[in-house]
Design goal:
Length: about 90
Amino acid sequence: MARALINNPSILLADEPTGNLDTRTSIEVMDIFQRLNRERGITVLLITHELDIAEYGSRTVAFRDGLVTSDRPNTRRRLAQDELAALPAAAAS
């Protein structure tokens, strides 16, 4: 992610960024994406098969066989910052 941000892009492409992560780390990654969008105005285009992860975006575009099957705003957008605050503290290593 750091290499992608070095040149101050206006768009960030993320292909399955939470695919092999635990729940807490997935929410942390989504928090980073949401903050980049909110604070820097970076558009984040995230590709995922996980419907719960798609709910962090402002809209969801679904494809099947290369064609758009739906394009809708997320009216109940998940906010990673709020979810992180509600999680129990991480265990010390």
